[in-house]
Amino acid sequence: MDDFEAIDFFRDEALVADPYPYFEALRGRCPVQRENHHDVMMVTGYDEAVQVYNDTDAFSSCISVTGPFPGFPVPLEGDDVSELIALHRDELPMSDQLPTMDPPTHTDHRALLMRLITPKRLKENEASMWHLADGLLDDYLAPGEGEFIGGFAGPFTLLVIADLLGVPEEDRQEFMDTLQRRPAAEAGVGSTGDDTLHHSPLEYLYGRFTTYIEERRREPREDVLTGLATATFPDGSPPEVIDVVRVAANLFAAGQETTVRLLSSALKILAEQPELQRLLRTERDRIPNFIEETLRAESPVKGDFRLSKVATSVGGVDIPPGTTVMVLNSAANRDPRQFEDPAAFDVGRANVRRHLAFGRGVHTCPGAPLARAEARVTLERLLERTSDIRIAERAHGPAGARRYDYVPTFILRGLTNLNLEWSEAR
Ligand code: HEM
Fold first, then answer.
1. What gap in Å lies between CA 395 and CA 403, rounded to an integer?
2. What angle do CA 379, 381, 383 make, to 5 degrees?
3. SS3 helix, strand, coil % of the chain, rounded to 5?
4. Which Pfam family, just one, is annotated for this protein (predicted)?
């Protein structure tokens, strides 16, 4: 790609369908390379990405989701912009959400979250996933063809988080009706893809969970919501109701769209590669590795942002204070210095679990075990209940001339819709 300097990664629609040649071009120039249109340092190298993720002394997460948009409220001048960040971080979008917090606030709020998704809770949640998946598949599979995201992946990921947080059965349909939405195709490439988290869905979640938590604090019951309502910070102090509500809303916001993209990428790959599908049907113990390779090759979160607080250097490149850095998980996961023949989809790849699809360091995705379990349950049940899954040519065109639409954001990577056909297993 010769003209890559002319390309505006944050606005160019052509990169939505296939961002990988652009990432290659950037890395070919330098694994830490400035993007001129929005003045962002793009980190496409694996080791360099890990370095940024692990250095919370030099980098703040205050812009983790929004990056160069909408800009910092004041000019970031001086040798150390930590104080300016502390003064103005509350004015930035999503400042009350975990991904944008820095230690020590992040440490406390993350600990609160980890008390809600304990190994025991995750185990119980996984047990109900099988039941949830089969319930949805009864309807989805019946016609022999259907759109996978609206028909299965969207409702499944929503119901799994509702179950994790103990949303009572009788309220789940209302959650589905309010939160289940069509992909944000109207949002435009400049969007961060976080519009799902804004306005009414987030307000709805805040309202719902405030009621739940207040009720359970007044009258504790034997249920998961009571556990949520009575969880404490690491020092034993009780959080404000709003702190707990935020954590619950965070889980819906961070866990749903991402997992939908993973599930749909996995199904697309399986439907496009009949031999691989046959292999997974006969050797089910390969499913976990298949999921990891999907996460590596089609990372649902293309990247996250960091803001440098002080002068530092990454991979030998100087980063001045106040620099917006984009750590590109998708690009690091295709760094040939780390993954041999990175463009090839190799279900037997030995070091695949080293991928950065879930990030690294203090913000590393706490939902990773959940997302992996959701993918495993989905694949196990779909492979069990069908004998052959195919791409619907009517929607995507014939093999060799397929048409796919991807979510038009610079943050997420994944399909807006995936139309499949299948033969049900006898
Ligand atoms: C395939 C699915 C998923 C992917 C690819 C993914 C990816 C990520 C990444 C890359 C981060 C780090 C962001 C940063 O460093 O700035 C993150 C953070 C987070 N994820 Fe996930 N995620 C997925 C599923 C989930 C699920 C299912 C949940 C919860 C139910 C979840 C909850 C969170 C939360 C709360 C954070 C913020 C953690 C923190 O800031 O300490 N994610 N995720």
1. 8
2. 65
3. 50, 10, 35
4. p450
C-alpha of 58 from chain center: 24
Q: Ligand 1 pocket, 322 CB below 6 A?
A: no
Which residue out of 126, 260, 261, 365 has the highest number of ligand 1 atoms within 8 Å of its CB and is therefore the one to mutate? 365
Q: Residue holding tokens 């989805």?
A: 140
Mean pLDDT within 373-384: 98
Residues facing 80 on adjacent strands: 310
* Nearest-angstrom CA–CA distance, 373 and 116: 17
Surface-to-core class of residue 419, CB atoms within 10 Å of its CB (0-12 exposed, 13-18 middle, 19+ buried): buried
Instruction: Pick the atom of ligand 1 nearest to 375's CA.
Output: 1
Query: Ligand 1 in contact with 258 (CB < 6 A)?
Result: yes
Ligand 1 centroid distance, CA of 99 (Å): 8
Q: How many residues does the chain have?
A: 426
Report CA-CA distances (Å) from 34 to 8, 72, 108. Answer: 12, 18, 34
What does DSSP say about strands 304-308 and 324-327: parallel, antiparallel, or unpaired?
antiparallel
Residue-wise DSSP of 208-238:
HHHHHHHHHHHS--SSHHHHHHH---TTSPP
Q: How far is CA 377 from CA 164, 284, 373, in A?
A: 15, 11, 6
128: amino acid identity, one letter: S
Tens digit of each residue's pLDDT (9 = 90 or more) over 343-355: 999 999 999 999 9
Please tell me the distance between residue 358's alpha carbon and the centre of ligand 1 in angstroms.
6
CB 409 within 8 A of CB 187: yes
Structure tokens at 257: 């769209």
65 exposure class (CB count in 10 Å sphere: 0-12, 13-18, 19+): buried
Cα dist. 167→171, 242, 248, 300 in Å?
A: 7, 17, 11, 26
Alpha carbon distance 179, 288 (integer Å): 29
pLDDT digits (tens, 9 = 90+) for 71-120: 899 999 999 999 999 999 999 988 988 999 999 999 999 998 998 888 99
